[in-house]
Specification:
With 418 residues, this protein is mainly α. 70% of the residues lie in helices and 0% in strands. α4 runs antiparallel to α5 and α16 runs antiparallel to α17. It is globular and about 55 Å long. The chain starts with a helix and ends with a helix.
Length: 418
């Protein structure tokens, strides 16, 4: 009995130390999010506004949808007792269509899952090409919101082209092309998805995500959520939520790099919510990086992608395809916006939709750079399409020059041709 009392007494200091360490970790992980919120509410300046808007846009326009995708897929796995990764692992003719179907889902969550499964040995190279070809990234939400039929047609087109491309690639190269000798079917990529968390942090993360998903749905349909929910005390509530959510995701993801582990046993858990949060944080880091690079390039270098298309009608689809090589959804959303605004023809939109890999390209480069580059090149190598006769008539393209016609008969003729 004395030994038990002694052991219990010695265990208490260790438990107290763990609690103290956990509280310290929580404080350190929350600090960047709280600091970002405070700076947004108190500081002024165009550069800070660009940074905070980029973080909020990345969270509300991308991370929330990625999280929703993960929740649906992982939730279906649990509810139906199926394993999407096992479906991808089966070396059958249906593996490629399944990968293309995941890639065709609006957003990038499905394509990211496919890339991960290839690296772990569960998927053929053709499946990666199929998913990256089928995905339109977050530009799909914008297109579906404003032109639903065109958006759905793009999804069907991407799925079809992706499936056919994947089958052809597998027939030419085989399923293990570029995989490397160190990959095994049961390999894991824990280092790529680890983050620091505790039960409290995960609950707070989900508490931010729930209203974030509501705001994201409104944003996808072009609703000004800041104006809708603004009050006298807070004029940009949606942006504030996005800044806090995005910064918290980045802080949780990067904390282990600074020796902050949180609750290590809890962070390594494989539950539905924990997997969703961990994988979403991983994606969010790259998405925010992409948004910041794009917006800060515009700010410091005066970059204007719209001017690239002026006077180059015959090369417009090729330019749009090349823009699809850029990682992230920012440039692709811009191309879709230009199509919806009547600046570029449909042929350019189709080329960009098939060539771009959205935010899936960031984790793909991080996990398997050579595979990402080759798959991206394959997804666009045969996609160049010159402007169609209807596009020429609609956009007034008799020769090398290109100047959009007025919004009268030319636009009506193009619409009638559709």
């Amino acid at each position: 009995m004395d030994r038990d009392v002694t052991q219990g007494a010695s265990a208490r200091p260790r438990q107290d130390a763990r609690r103290t360490a956990s509280r310290t970790s929580i404080a350190l992980i929350l600090a960047p999010a709280l600091l970002a919120a405070w700076l947004m509410l108190t500081a002024e300046g165009e550069l800070l506004d660009i940074i905070f808007t980029s973080i909020a846009d990345a969270y509300l326009q991308v991370s929330t949808f990625v999280a929703a995708t993960f929740l649906i897929i992982y939730g279906l796995e649990r509810a139906l007792k199926i394993d999407a990764t096992a479906m991808l692992k089966r070396d059958t003719i249906w593996q490629v269509p399944v990968a293309a179907g995941l890639g065709a889902l609006p957003g990038c969550g499905g394509a990211i899952i496919v890339v991960t499964q290839y690296v772990t040995g569960r998927l053929s190279f053709g499946g990666v090409v199929a998913a990256l070809t089928a995905t339109m990234g977050d530009a799909a939400f914008l297109l579906i919101a404003q032109e639903p039929l065109t958006g759905l047609a793009m999804i069907v087109l991407g799925f079809t082209v992706g499936t056919l491309s994947g089958w052809v690639i597998n027939a030419i190269h085989g399923g293990d092309f570029l995989r490397g000798s160190q990959t095994s079917p049961d390999a894991k990529i824990e280092a790529e998805h680890d983050d620091a968390s505790t039960l409290l942090l995960d609950r707070l993360w989900m508490l931010i995500l729930i209203p974030g998903m509501v705001l994201a749905a409104l944003v996808a349909f072009q609703v000004d959520v800041d104006a809708m929910f603004a009050t006298d005390a807070l004029d940009r509530p949606a942006t504030l939520l996005g800044v806090v959510g995005g910064t918290l995701a980045v802080s949780m993801r990067l904390a282990p790099r600074f020796g902050i582990k949180g609750d290590a046993a809890f962070s390594a858990g494989a539950g539905l919510v924990r997997r969703t949060i961990s994988d979403t944080n991983f994606v969010t880091v790259w998405v925010i990086f992409a948004y910041l690079v794009f917006e800060l390039s515009v700010y410091f270098l005066g970059l204007d992608l719209k001017t690239v298309f002026d006077g180059w009608a015959l090369f417009t689809p090729m330019i749009a395809i090349l823009l699809g090589f850029l990682p992230g959804c920012g440039p692709q959303v811009l191309v879709t916006t230009m199509y919806l605004s009547g600046i570029i023809p449909l042929s350019a939109q189709i080329g960009n939709a098939l060539s771009n890999d959205g935010d899936a390209l960031f984790p793909a480069i991080a996990i398997a750079p050579k595979v990402a580059i080759v798959a991206t090149l394959y997804s666009a190598c045969l996609l160049y399409t010159s402007p169609s006769p209807r596009d020429r008539q609609k956009w007034g393209m008799p020769g090398w020059g290109w100047k959009k016609n007025g919004g009268g008969g030319g636009g009506g003729g193009g619409g009638g041709g559709g």
